[in-house]
Amino acid sequence: MTTISKSDGLAEFPSTPWPLVITAGTASTTVRIQSLDDLVSRYYRPLLSHLVCVRRLSPPQAEDILHGFLHRKVLEQKLLASANRERGRFRTFLLKVLDNFLVGEIRWERAQKRHADDVASIEENEEVIADPEQPADTYDRVWAQTVLAEAARRMQVECLQGQRDDVWGLFEERLLRPALEGTPPGDYEELVGRLRVASPTSAYNLLVTGKRMFARRLAEVIGEYAGEPQEVAREVRELHAILARAHKITPGLPYTSGNAPAEKSGDHLRNAKRQP
Amino acid sequence: MKPADNDADRDGAHRLASLMDLESAATPLWTAAELGAVFRHQMSAPVQLDLGGVAPNLVPKLRFLCEAQGLLLNSFDDLFRHPHPPVELFEIVKKWARRNRQNPAAALPKEVATALYYGSIAAALVRCQRQISRLGDPALKQGLDWMLAQQWITDPVRSLCQEARSMLMKKK
């Protein structure tokens, strides 16, 4: 069994969020920035998807809003110091504060527009803000995809280190890529030939092994932010429910270096700091 | 959004959710369009690898049967093409295929297991002149007709089924 350590690249998903949130909210500047960076790396994509898919901002507008949110609300106003574990999940808290920030931005822009008509506007999105559609759906769905992608990334590292290319190859081509990217499963004949799988029974057993390996990694990733075992089980059920009721997947979540590259850790925060 | 797009998106999200159904046998691992590929793969698989799982005490017997009289049976394809194969091997194939057909969590698609089941009965009848099944002639004919209706059955097995069916018809 592979031992997981920081050095083998398997433990890069930011650790339990509430201690991280507390550190990010209260610690010294250097430690605080690193903790903030970890938090932002984790929530950037779900928040951005929420702004684009639910709030219907264009991607550049969404990025501007998000950078403004991170810079003014999170960095300058020390939002995280006011986060309270007793009030519920951190990701729900963050979404609510972002939505409030967006409403504030729209109102501010409207006030500015009274003085200058030529400003590119996000005002037309205000009616969307009042949309009764469940606002957390997209955010939760991208969050669930992020968690699954991280579990897959760790499984890939484990397979490559354990020289189980056959397990990873079949799992990736037949189950993971179709699920994460919506592509058809890889050609059976080509795959079993390339991976030298002796028989359909062997192929089946390799896929079952892959699914179990993925299950372990998923529980591990969830355990890092959900904490107690009963919370892990509850979170697995909730992520499953989120995905089962979802109507759309967001493609391109990276789980291998071969896909769209993930932004380097810290890029989001550095961009936010550059915000005027 | 078009209805087809909607369906595809919903399928995608459900596939994603199915990744979390980790112990579920409900997720099919191959599609109906791939039955031919799976069957061809099975026919190229080493006989001793899969059949050894039927019962551990069969392993030495299998090795003996596969190597006896210079048969050198490596794959299922070798077995089904051989002019004088040992009938015991077809009995073992039939038993293994039946076990796969009856078990909903089995590794083989049910259709492929069914093809191996009737294929082994047909081969024993044609090559060894032995009826290794307790199925009556009408039931066996029905099974062979099903085999002949499948586009993905390989030619050697199809020929065996046609020949076995002719033998049954002549008995009437």
Description:
The complex is a heterodimer of chains A (276) and B (172). With 276 residues, chain A is an all-alpha fold. Chain A has eleven helices and no strands. Helices cover 67% and strands 0% of the residues of chain A. The termini of chain A are far apart. Chain B is built from nine helices and no strands. At the A-B interface, helix 6, helix 7, helix 8, helix 9 and helix 10 of A face helix 1 and helix 2 of B.
Write a brief caption for the model.
Chain A has 276 residues and is an all-alpha fold. Chain A is built from eleven helices and no strands.
Topology:
The complex is a heterodimer of chains A (276) and B (172).
Chain A: H1 17-26, H2 29-54, H3 59-76, H4 90-113, H5 126-129, H6 136-161, H7 165-181, H8 188-194, H9 200-226, H10 229-245, H11 267-274
Helix pairs in contact in A: 1-2, 2-3, 2-6, 3-4, 3-11, 6-7, 6-9, 6-10, 7-9, 9-10
Chain B: H1 3-18, H2 35-44, H3 47-51, H4 58-67, H5 76-81, H6 87-102, H7 110-128, H8 137-149, H9 155-171
Helix pairs in contact in B: 6-7, 7-8, 7-9, 8-9
Name the descriptors.
heterodimer; A: about 280 residues; mainly alpha; disordered N terminus; B: about 170 residues; about 65% helix
Quaternary organisation: heterodimer
Radius of gyration of chain A: 21 Å
Q: What is the helix content of chain B?
A: 55-70%
Proportion of residues in β-strands of chain B:
under 5%
Task: Count every helix of chain A, treating DSSP H or I runs of 4 or more residues as helices.
Answer: 11
Give a quick account of the main beta sheet of chain B: strands, pairing sense, barrel closure: none
Helix/strand/pairing category of chain A? mainly alpha
Average predicted local confidence, pLDDT of chain B: 82
Largest interface, counted with CB-CB under 8 A?
A: A-B, 41 and 35 residues
By DSSP (H or I, 4+ residues per run), the number of helices of chain B equals: 9
What is the terminal separation of chain A in angstroms? 50 Å
Helix-strand topology string of chain B: HHHHHHHHH
* Succession of helices and strands of chain A: HHHHHHHHHHH
Uncertain segments of chain A: 1-16, 119-128, 256-276
Shape of chain B: globular
Task: Note poorly predicted spans of chain B.
Answer: 1-6
| Main sheet makeup of chain A | none
| Envelope shape of chain A | elongated
What is the total tally of β strands of chain B?
0
Secondary structure: helix percent of chain A: 55-70%
